[in-house]
């Protein structure tokens, strides 16, 4: 249960972990916009609250159809910080029987790292991993074996949108204001990056998926096809970034793979990516299609069986 999107992944696990990968039976997502209209005030707004309940009821029906035996449900930033988050968790349980675990930011970062490792071959050198959610942004510095540093910052795209997206298209002064804010808000990440010297940026979740699709469309490729990992060159990112800054909401909606949910958030998210690339001096980007839910699945797959 993310701040923007709720994901449902139903898989059939192999009898033994060594027997192979899980078989995906259903992978779907719903743009619930749980943070809309309330996250910056520390509340889940009534309309978003009802969308969440409706979506979990629909997910429960899918799970019954697939005869799901083991359910793991997690909630992140919006539920974590909202005053009425515990009430939503209780209502979900009473109406669907689904027990939602509200995970702390550090745990979220660990699961994201596990997921990314399933998609991207990291090797021995440290990389800066970044997952831009609606409520929080997780940064992890890690290689294939070790997490050197991790932190979750409550500066997700919905919060940045509320604070800095004052004009459409976004004005240069608003971009500069966001950069100034990030210099202060992300000081711990900048210090960690200076210490560990990551060699690249690995981005997970929606914004990076969309940037990868925009790059694919420019190359004449099928932008709807989403590989587990996709290299995004700096030239490609800045082509997309400058385009997004110049277009209106209606014009951004016409871009390949763009959704109404992401058409505004992607602008402030790309300002954040630009800031990270420049301040950490990172030469290239890899987009990972795997993140928290794949990390959780990997953990379940390798948990001791009773």
From TrEMBL:
Coiled coil: none annotated. Pfam families: Ppx-GppA (PF02541). Signal peptide: none annotated. Residues 19-302 form the Ppx/GppA phosphatase N-terminal domain. One of its GO terms (molecular function) is pyrophosphatase activity. Gene3D superfamilies: 3.30.420.40, Exopolyphosphatase. Domain 2 (3.30.420.150). This is Phosphatase. It comes from Hymenobacter oligotrophus.
């Amino acid at each position: 249960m993310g701040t923007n999107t709720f994901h449902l992944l139903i898989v059939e696990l192999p009898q033994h972990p060594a027997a192979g990968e899980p078989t995906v039976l259903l992978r779907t997502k719903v743009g619930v916009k749980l943070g809309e209209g309330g996250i910056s005030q520390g509340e889940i707004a009534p309309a978003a609250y009802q969308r969440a309940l409706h979506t979990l009821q629909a997910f429960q029906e899918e799970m019954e159809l697939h005869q799901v035996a083991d359910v793991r449900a997690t909630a992140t930033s919006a539920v974590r910080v909202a005053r009425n988050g515990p009430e939503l968790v209780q209502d979900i349980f009473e109406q669907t029987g689904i027990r939602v675990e509200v995970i702390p930011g550090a745990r979220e970062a660990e699961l994201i790292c596990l997921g990314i490792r399933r998609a991207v071959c990291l090797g021995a050198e440290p990389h800066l991993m970044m997952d831009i959610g609606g409520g929080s942004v997780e940064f992890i510095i890690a290689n294939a074996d070790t997490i050197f540093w991790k932190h979750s910052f409550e500066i997700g795209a919905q919060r940045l949108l509320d604070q800095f997206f004052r004009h459409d298209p976004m004005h240069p002064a608003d971009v500069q204001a966001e950069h100034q804010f990030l210099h202060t808000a992300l000081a711990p990440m900048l210090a960690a990056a200076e210490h560990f010297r990551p060699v690249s940026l690995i981005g997970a979740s929606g914004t990076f998926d969309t940037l990868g699709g925009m790059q694919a469309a420019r190359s004449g490729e099928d932008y709807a096809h989403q590989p587990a990992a996709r290299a995004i060159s700096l030239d490609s990112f800045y082509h997309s970034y400058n385009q997004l800054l110049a277009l209106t909401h209606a014009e951004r909606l016409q871009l390949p793979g763009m959704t109404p949910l992401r058409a505004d958030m992607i602008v402030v998210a790309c300002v954040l990516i630009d800031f990270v690339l420049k301040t950490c001096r990172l030469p290239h980007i890899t987009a990972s299609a795997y993140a928290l839910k794949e990390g959780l699945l990997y953990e379940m797959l390798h948990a001791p069986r009773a």
